[in-house]
Amino acid sequence: MFPTETGANKTFQPTLLDEDVGDDDDGDTVNDDLDLELSNDDSIQPQLSFVSPSGHAIDTSVHLHDYCMGPVLQPQNQSFRCCDTQTENNCAVMEVQTEESFQGKTADFSSQTEHSTRDFGVQCHLPILTYDDVKYNGDLVSFYTGIPYRVVFEALFDEIKDEAEVRTSRRKLNYKDSDGGRPRTLSVLDEFFMVLMRLRLGLLFEDLGTRFCISTSQCSDIVERWINYLHVQLSFLVQWPSRELVKNNMPKQFKEKYSNTRIIIDCTEIYSETSSSLSLKSLMYSDYKSHMTHKMLVGISPNGVVTFVSDCWVGCTSDKKLTEKCGLLDLLEEGDAIMVGKGFTITDLTTPRGIHPIIPPFKQKGKQFSKRDVLLTKDIASLRIHVERQMERIKNFRILHVNIPITQSRRISKVFKICTYLKNLWPPLVQ
Questions:
Q1: Residue 266: closest CA among 362, 357, 341
Q2: Of 99, 103, 136, 193, which is most buried with the most CB atoms under 10 A?
Q3: What is the mean pLDDT of the chain?
Q4: CB-based contacts of 326: which residues, under 8 Å, 6+ apart?
Q5: pLDDT 10s digits, 326-382
Q6: What is the domain count for the chain?
Q7: 381 Cβ partners below 8 Å, 6+ apart?
Q8: What is the pTM assigned to this prediction?
């Protein structure tokens, strides 16, 4: 029971003052008017309360809502009793507490039939930001996804969406099993968009979960599934070209001096968290960066397109060792030239294979560079700078800027390769 005020304060109770019973034209007895007003004398008028026809307080709240226009009145002596004491305390009979609720109003039950039912859809939280919100702005598409244009984004999604519907679904335990798992919360397009935002902006799972109205664990699960899928599905974006294809697209500055150049290579490093293991610290420490790092080798064609990317290695690996073990030399043919920096002392590896290394001249101890050596160093540096520019493009994906957690070390190779694949969608560096 709602508390009622007594003593100095008035007790407002709805009462039935008058009831005129008459006959209409058809001879049926109807209530012409039901007037409700307030009375301070409980002994004169019977007390009324609001309960539903079924006699349940929950049903009463439903009937008093939008489903019907007027209240359902019933004398208090017909109120129900609950099956136990605890339920009886929770199921209080609703009473009117304000004078304005009934003063000067007439109960009308004529429209109850119209409002007896109502359809409700499934309530859900829509993502704060979706691809549809940015697709008409090319700058925002590039900012959030790392893909240059809307047309390129949609063409790439059309290429991978058929298998993505199945391979990234949580309803599947493996590729052949279609039982178990929860249904997909986001659309396939928005999941792809969310994963690219994770790579491009380096957003945390908590932030992405808030933006897309999903839990942090669910966001992490979606990103992990998509990383495994994109690592395989986007690998076609980096291919090893034939010698004829490289020569046909070789820029003028290469044709004049280094026409046999097949690939330009360099290594790059990304920071990693410091491990508590001393042996792992010694393996991952990089003398060049003075930090724990992961190391990768990237190779581009003379026109600036990435044609080779290696797996991630520990930071202590030398440039020569990484070139020998990554499998690049097996792709080169006899007569090819490979342009490298001074740290790649790989002459003993390339000469037996008939591969010519293009390396800047080394300065001999106690001697200065000759005029020829200065011009040669300048020519090689002006052409080799394109591989540095390409690696800068790849590192525009801000997920590579943070210290990679130790728990993500096994996944960093896939992440770096996906970023490299996506950067090949941009126009070549050298036209």
A1: 341
A2: 193
A3: 77
A4: 297, 310, 311
A5: 999 999 999 999 999 988 999 999 999 999 999 998 877 778 888 888 899 999 999
A6: 3
A7: 360
A8: 0.69
User: Do 191 and 340 reside in the same domain of the chain?
Assistant: no
Could you report the per-residue pLDDT of 241-285, keeping only the tens digit for each?
Answer: 999 999 999 998 898 889 999 999 999 999 999 988 888 899 999
Q: Which residue has the higher pLDDT, 60 or 141?
A: 141
Range of the domain at 84: 14-101
Statement to judge: residues 361 and 377 lie in one domain: yes
Burial class, 139, CB count within 10 angstroms (exposed 0-12 / middle 13-18 / buried 19+): exposed
Gap between the Cα atoms of 424 and 52, Å rounded: 68
Closest by CA position to 263, among listed 151, 355, 160: 355
First to last CA, the chain: 83
Same-domain check for residues 335 and 285: yes
Domain membership of residue 123 (yes or no) is no
* 218 falls within a domain: yes
Q: Which two tokens stand for residue 407?
A: 């728990």
Radius of gyration over every alpha carbon of the chain, rounded to an integer in angstroms: 38
Are 278 and 224 part of one and the same domain?
no
